[in-house]
Design a protein that fits this description.
Methylamine Dehydrogenase, Chain H; 5-stranded antiparallel β-sheet; 4-stranded antiparallel β-sheet; globular
Length: 406
């Protein structure tokens, strides 16, 4: 069934009085030399209850054992709004583990499914956009390390989402190549694979390959098959990591914003046409490093966009632990509005309550910070929690607690 899923989520977020943030662990960041691993405790998704004012409390009754490293959590809601699934990227097991979530937030495991590559990280859902098409899970298989003798396993893959939340591998597009920085780009590293609706090409998805400094544009067919549309080169050494796009409901031009890990920039592109296929036209590059400061010892992490498409948030981690707030102009370009402190190594970040609360996970010290989002999109610190989290939190999935699904 074709539906406006963004609108359904917005209604659910407005109606809920509390929300649950499921939180997964990414282990210690390789650059965080003082970090101590959390052992088996990292193989459990913990739950935190969030209120509208940003206050937080642990919900240990909703903890979910995963049996592997839950580095990314992806939400899916079916067409009727009667079922919610959670797909967990287990990077250490090269698979996606699937759960059905009850209205209370309790999880029932469905199964584990090989991701089509090595070390799956970020994943995203492309909802069916025509009758007879399938809902598809897009999976970024990062691969690694850079001293490996082969890059086999770096890939963008697609998986059919079945009615019972099980998955079927539909297609795999291997990536191979390298770029400027040997110890980070010695091989291909697909860091994200994100659906980005665009006009008649609303089935387009973009794979950011940090290892090759490229963004691959794929058309996703109704059966989940992937067709390469175009390849966009970024400046060597930037390392494109994650991206967000203009809300699907927006009129006029559509834009994509990409955070680059080593470059510590946000690159803005307009979605356009290159012949008969969709591609990206670069409009702007803005830095996440404050003017007059050095970016040495830091790297960018996450990027999120407000549901109304007016504000963008991006994090830096390392020596610079910050969230940068940008206003998004009508032409898609960004104007910095605020730079605010974040927990050490702020890897995971998400919005709750339809953009009313921002959550940022500090990977190094195992902490979660919340911020209230003001009318202009800027942030005010709300609360900090260190209890009830998995060690080294790095992933989020929001769930409307005890609410009627839309």
């Amino acid at each position: 069934m074709v539906r406006s899923f963004a609108a359904a989520l917005a209604v659910a977020s407005v109606s809920a009085q509390t929300q649950i943030a499921f939180v997964g662990s990414g282990g210690c960041d390789g650059a965080d030399v003082g970090c101590v691993g959390g052992g088996d405790a990292e193989h459990t998704i913990q739950a935190i209850e969030i209120s509208r004012d940003g206050q937080m409390k642990p919900r240990p009754d909703l903890a979910i054992p995963t049996g592997g490293q839950p580095v990314w959590l992806t939400k899916f809601q079916d067409a009727e709004g009667s079922k919610q699934c959670m797909f967990v990227s287990r990077a250490d097991l090269d698979d996606i583990q699937s759960y059905v979530l009850a209205p209370s937030g309790e999880a029932t495991v469905v199964g584990a499914y090989k991701s089509g590559g090595a070390a799956p990280v970020q994943a995203d859902v492309l909802y069916a956009l025509s009758e007879g098409a399938n809902d598809v899970l897009l999976v970024a298989n990062y691969h690694g390390p850079d001293d490996a003798t082969t890059s086999d396993g770096a890939a963008a893959s697609s998986m059919i989402i079945n009615e019972d939340c099980s998955l079927e591998l539909a297609d795999v597009k291997p990536h191979s190549g390298s770029s400027l920085i040997p110890d980070r780009q010695g091989g291909a590293h697909v860091h994200s694979f994100t659906a980005a609706p665009y006009g008649e090409h609303r089935n387009e998805a973009y794979a950011c390959d940090l290892g090759q400094d490229k963004i691959f544009s794929y058309a996703v067919q109704g059966d989940g098959k992937l067709t390469l549309s175009s390849i966009i080169d970024t400046t060597p050494g930037l390392g494109p990591r994650h991206l967000v796009h203009t809300p699907a409901t927006s009129d006029g031009p559509h834009f994509v914003h990409v955070v680059t890990e080593m470059g510590m920039t946000v690159n803005t592109y307009e979605q356009t046409m290159c012949g008969d296929t969709a591609c990206l036209k670069e409009l702007q590059v803005v830095s996440l490093v404050p003017e007059g400061q050095s970016g040495e010892g830091s790297k960018a992490a996450e990027i999120v966009i407000a549901p109304d498409g007016n504000t963008l948030y991006a994090t830096n981690r390392g020596l610079l632990n910050t969230v940068t707030v940008f206003g998004i102009e009508k032409d898609g370009t960004l104007t910095q509005k605020q730079l605010i402190s974040a927990p050490v190594y702020p890897r995971g970040m998400t919005l709750a309550f339809n953009g009313g609360v921002l959550l940022v996970a500090g990977q190094s010290k195992t902490e979660l910070w919340s911020y209230q989002v003001k009318a202009d999109g800027t942030l005010a610190s709300a609360s900090v929690i260190a209890d009830g989290l998995p060690p080294h939190p790095a992933a989020f999935m929001m769930f409307e607690s005890n609410s009627v699904l839309v």
